[in-house]
Design goal:
Number of domains: 1
Helix content: 25-40%
Structural class: mainly alpha
Distance between the termini: 33 Å
Order of helices and strands: HH
Radius of gyration: 18 Å
Shape: elongated
Number of helices: 2
Largest sheet: none
Number of strands: 0
Length: 77
């Protein structure tokens, strides 16, 4: 069963209707009585993420530093 929303997918798993593949941050972060999270290790799974900022907007000095830090960190992967 295909779904468009992560919460719906988790609900289906919780109801015993199947399994789901989703980002780690979308899975329960604490012990869940009905859902087990199993990391995928082979093959390696990755996804593209990006920064979003307002077009033509001005960032605060703190936001500029944060953006620079994120770009430096993410470009090492």
């Amino acid at each position: 069963m295909a779904t468009s929303h992560l919460s719906t997918s988790l609900g289906h798993v919780e109801a015993g209707l199947g399994i789901s593949v989703m980002p780690r941050l979308a899975t329960p972060q604490v012990e869940h009585p009905l859902i087990a999270t199993v990391p995928l290790t082979a093959p390696t799974v990755s996804r593209m993420i990006g920064l979003v900022e307002r077009r033509g907007g001005r960032l605060s000095p703190a936001a500029i530093r944060f953006r620079k830090m994120l770009v430096q960190e993410w470009t090492t992967y």
